[in-house]
Amino acid sequence: MNARMHLSGAHASQEPDEGERIAVAAEVLGLLADRTRLALLRRLAAGEADVTTLTEATDATRTSVSQHLARLRLAALVTTRKEGRRVVYALRHGHLRRLVDEALNVADHQIGHLPPHD
User: Which residues does residue 50 pair with via DSSP β-bridges, in sequence order?
Assistant: First the structure.
């Protein structure tokens, strides 16, 4: 993970150059390219969840889910809050939810041999 991956500044005072935007976008898409992380983000798109709930929503072990969540947290794609002893995860913003939805829509089209549309 490099310094560019820290995405917490939603709208900085100066616009990033196009090369930086492309690099960060590629890193975000790279994080989504993992099945477990994509499944986690899909579940989080439905609402907040703890590790137990997220483990049940994937075919991964609790350890694996925790490691993937750590990567998503490091990349500032998910947020956390404490609820007693539990840590509750949420998507950082709606852009990510829409990105996951669109990736799954593309998959639906490819699997179902559906015609393209805008």
Answer: 88
In tens, the pLDDT along 43-56 reads 999 999 999 999 99
Mean per-residue pLDDT over the chain, rounded: 90
Q: Which residues of 63-72 are buried (b: 16+ CB within 10 A; e: fewer)?
A: eebeebbebb
Structure tokens that stand for 60 in this block = 């991964």
pTM for the model stands at: 0.82
Strand partners, 83: 86
User: Contact 75/60 with Cβ under 8 angstroms?
Assistant: no
Question: What residues contact 30, with CB distance under 8 A and at least 6 apart?
Answer: none
